[in-house]
């Protein structure tokens, strides 16, 4: 039987386990919160680590949301000003 190597957090040396995190992007006048993102999370300090592949996927999603929000706002002048906030779960 192979023993799985325990991964340690570089911040606090806690044990890193598979879990989920939330990523927040603040871009110009839009705040986007992406919830339930697959990550490795420290059981002690809560620091989350995501893979490059997951980061690329989330960045693509955020870019698409920004485009969609800007397109929508152009058709709705009364909500065109001020801060917009979007929250999604993946």
Low-confidence runs of at least 5 consecutive residues: none
Rg, Cα atoms, Å: 17 Å
Measured distance between first and last alpha carbons: 35 Å
Helix content: 25-40%
**Main sheet makeup:** 4 strands, mixed
Order of helices and strands: EEEHE
- Mean pLDDT level: 86
Overall structural class, as computed from helix and strand content, comes to alpha+beta
Strand content: 35-45%
Find the count of extended strands (DSSP E, 2+ residues). Answer: 4
What best-fitting shape do the alpha-carbon axes yield? elongated
Explain this structure to me?
With 90 residues, the chain is an alpha+beta fold. The chain has a domain at 22-37 and 52-89. Helix content is 27%, strand content 37%. It is built from one helix and four strands. Strands 1, 2, 3 and 4 form a four-stranded mixed beta sheet that branches. A hairpin with a 2-residue loop joins β1 and β2 (30-42). The longest helix has 24 residues, at 52-75. The protein is elongated and about 60 Å long. The protein starts with 15 loop residues before the first strand and ends with a strand.
